[in-house]
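Please fill in the sequence for the structure shown.

STRUCTURE ENCODING:
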């Protein structure tokens, strides 16, 4: 199983599902520099601190030490007015490294929640760049599905939302996204340790069975479709 969304600051000893490989996401440069070297056999993705010197990220990208950059509006305190600067910094980077866009709505900081309008602007500005929607939109999953479905360069990471939305009215929205989205654009992720990998594996496996996904489609979602998506031009 390939886990496209996990964190390692507390270690992987309690990871409760079989994993063959994974993408470790670091939400700070400090965490990456401290914990990244301890996990050389995993893929690494790093938050894009666009106030950091751009050469720092260029060196990491060119040396293939990271495979994705992440935008996390709640952690980075990104409001609507900041997106024009973010876009300029991505242009300065001049690299088509994929972007993980955290789309989980949570907490009292309304000004810094994910922004679908600005995300669409990002996707349109960089049509050659792959975008992975972390958590697939959270409780706004249906909006993300309807407004992003025409973009071939957008894929969906199902981490955390599988467990978080399981007992909510949004479960049907999650089913719709999975049913009508190409399996090449759907990726299993856990957001470990914030949610149980095993529980989410079982939830997704049951959803795929209920939707009559065949074994090949199921395997692609659980194993390597994430890598295919970010590497295919």
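FILLED IN BY: designer on duty
SEQUENCE:
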């Amino acid at each position: 199983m390939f886990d496209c969304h996990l964190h390692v600051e507390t270690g992987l000893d309690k990871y409760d599902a079989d994993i063959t490989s994974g993408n470790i996401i670091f939400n700070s440069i400090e965490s990456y520099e401290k914990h990244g070297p301890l996990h050389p056999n995993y893929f690494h993705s790093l938050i894009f601190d666009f106030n950091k010197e751009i050469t720092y990220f260029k060196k990491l990208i060119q040396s293939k030490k990271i495979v994705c950059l992440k935008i996390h509006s709640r952690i980075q305190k990104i409001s609507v007015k900041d997106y024009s600067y973010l876009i300029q910094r991505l242009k300065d980077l001049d690299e088509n490294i994929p972007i993980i866009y955290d789309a989980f709505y949570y907490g009292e900081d309304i000004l810094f929640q994910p922004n679908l309008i600005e995300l669409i602007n990002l996707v349109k500005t960089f049509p050659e760049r792959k975008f992975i929607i972390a958590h697939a939109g959270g409780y706004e999953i249906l909006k993300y599905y309807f407004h992003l479905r025409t973009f071939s360069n957008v894929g969906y990471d199902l981490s955390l939302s599988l467990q978080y939305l399981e007992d909510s009215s949004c479960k049907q929205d999650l089913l719709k996204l999975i049913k009508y989205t190409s399996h090449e654009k759907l990726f299993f992720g856990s957001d470990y340790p914030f949610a149980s990998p095993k529980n989410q594996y079982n939830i997704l496996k049951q959803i795929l069975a209920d939707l009559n996904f065949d074994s090949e489609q199921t395997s692609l979602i659980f194993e390597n479709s994430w890598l295919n998506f970010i590497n295919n031009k």
